[in-house]
Every structure is written in structure tokens, then in C-alpha cells.
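Folding Problem: From Residues to Backbone Shape
Fields: amino acid sequence; protein C-alpha cells
RECORD BEGINS BELOW THIS LINE
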Amino acid sequence: MNDFVILTDSCCDLPAELAQKWELEVLPLSVHLGEQEFLNDLDGRSISFHEFYEQLRNEALCTTAAVNMGTFQQKMETLLKQGKDVLCILFSSGLSNTYNAGQLAAKELVDKYPERKLYTVDSLCASLGQGLLIAHAVELRKSGKSIEQVRDWLEENKLKLCHWFTVDDLNHLKRGGRVSSATALIGTVLGIKPVLHVDDEGHLINVGKARGRKASLSALVDQMEETMIDPEKQMIYISHGDCLEDAEWVRDEVLRRFHVKEVLINYVGPVIGAHSGPGTVALFFLGIHR
């Protein structure tokens, strides 16, 4: 029986219409801009993605908050009471407390509902990397795989979900402690753009640099060329921090170099965007390793 619900959080950055089509249950993280709190809704109803990035460009003070245990528990219990099994695919534990909150909530409920199945997966992914992992889970569910089979596939393959990204302004990474003040200053003056990825522990890692924007965008596709598997079967996801033209440039470069199954582009949502900033472009695909 493969009739189970996939529960995730809004750091998956999937388009709202896809989440609805796939019947996902999505819990939003939140951001504080100055004195105001906004939910990181997939459809931008709390704050539009463009408006959020405009506020960042105007140097608004921004902090973020994970989904708490109580919110997870309430949603999980509602689904379990409806007689549904639940597979949770959650934001990397290396970047947020969201997974830990979800895992603790699940532990509280598994004994209370012994007739139901409730599993949590630490995606070790972020943004549309998490979204792409969910897309594969949805396909597996549609093909008739059981909740355990989907969970096991996720655990076996999540470290093959490659995340490569670059940012246009190093100062946002500096504020988050990802690069030093000296690196941010020198990089800004010299036009050096970092090339980063998410490692096997789900942390952001600075692995290279490129001189100029186009070189950094091209470097993402170069990394893809090195490790991608079965390109003709691949769904390629690209997310961006309010810089659609750059994301489209990466898409066009991917399509020029490879014959892939499909390419999806969407925003980096406010929670992740608060740390990566406007001008972020990220490329996600399955590879032989991260």
C-alpha cells in the first residue's frame, strides 16, 4: 500500500502549485524583518519574494526561525488521526533545528499511534535540493513504492543530491559567519564570487572562487559536468535570489551542454535567502557524490 502523506517544510522552495499537485503537507518557517514577522510560505502570501529581497537590498535587519516541535506534533497528529501514514522529509539538520524538532515530535507520537507509520528523514539538503529530493519521493510513491521503500531510497541517495551555488554579494554570507570580513571585503573589491556547495553533513562549504559573475555561474555547470549521472533521466532544479535572468542563463547553459529530462526554476525562499542574499543562484542535480 503506497497511500501515505509526505510532510515537509517551506525550505524546500518548491513552487506552491507543485506542492498542491503532489498533495504535500508543508509547514512554514518564518523570518523577522525589523519588527515584523512573516511566514516563509511557498506562494509568498505573507511577503512576496521580490519584496523580501528588496528589503534585504535596503539592508533590513533579518532573522529566521525554525518550525517548532509543537507545530510538528499538531500537524502529525492531525494526519495520524485521519488514518494516514506520514513520511517527513525535512530541511538539513546542518542548517536548521527544524529536523530535530520534527524528529522529537515523531518520537512522542509513534507509541501513541502504533497502528500507523511515521518516519522522519533528515534530507541534509536545502532549498530546491530538498525540493528535488521530494520530487523523487513523489515519483516513487506514484510508481507504487511503499513508505518504507521511499524512505530507504531517500536515505541511500540523499548524499548524491548535489548542491552548487554562488552569491553576488559576500556580505550576507559574512553576516551569517560563512566567510570572514576580510574575504568579503577583498572579494567585493576584486569582483571575486564564491562557489559553494552543501557537504555530506548538510553544511554550506566554500570550495572555490571565480572572477566575475558569469564565470561563477559557468562554474556551477562545470561542477555538474564533473559528477552528474544519467543526464537524460535527470530533473534539474535551479533556485535564485530575485535574479531570474541569471537563473535562466544557467538553465540555457545546462540545456546547451546536456540532454536533460526537465529544468525547473524557482525562488530561494526568505529563510534561506536571509543568509545567502539577493543574487544567489543554485543548481541541483543527482551525481555520483556531493
Observations:
- The mean pLDDT is 92.
- DSSP finds eleven helices and 13 strands in the chain.
